[in-house]
């Protein structure tokens, strides 16, 4: 998901469940107003909103933000290009996950067939 170079200058993500926008800003090296803008531009980014419309990001959100940051700031993608790249990554992940499930089911069915032939 993230290349090691993207992680090198960023602090480690603490083992918390939720992060406030200020914490995410510090963890990802991006200003809070940029995070709010990215929420509008990237459908993958959906922080939980609680009372007072306060945003609480989860670990997965922080990883997505770091990936977006890497695409935009380090690899030189436009917002549209980064959005397409992230959508393509999701599609590949879904496809590979489906293939893995099919392989596992096939192995289990072959084992069942061996048992039934005995």
List keywords for this structure.
118 residues, mainly alpha, Multidrug-efflux Transporter Regulator, Chain: A, Domain 2
Set out the fold topology.
Blueprint (H helix, E strand, L loop, with lengths): L3 H5 L10 E2 H8 L3 H10 L6 E3 L3 E4 L1 H16 L4 H39 L1
Antiparallel strand pairs: 1-3, 2-3
CATH topology: Multidrug-efflux Transporter Regulator, Chain: A, Domain 2
* Largest pleated sheet: 3 strands, antiparallel
What is the total tally of β strands? Answer: 3
Percent helix range: 55-70%
What count of helical segments does DSSP give? Answer: 5
SSE string, helix = H, strand = E?
Answer: HEHHEEHH
- Low-confidence stretches are 1-6
Q: Identify the overall geometry.
A: elongated
The overall pLDDT average reads 84
Strand content: 5-15%
Amino-to-carboxy terminus distance: 45 Å
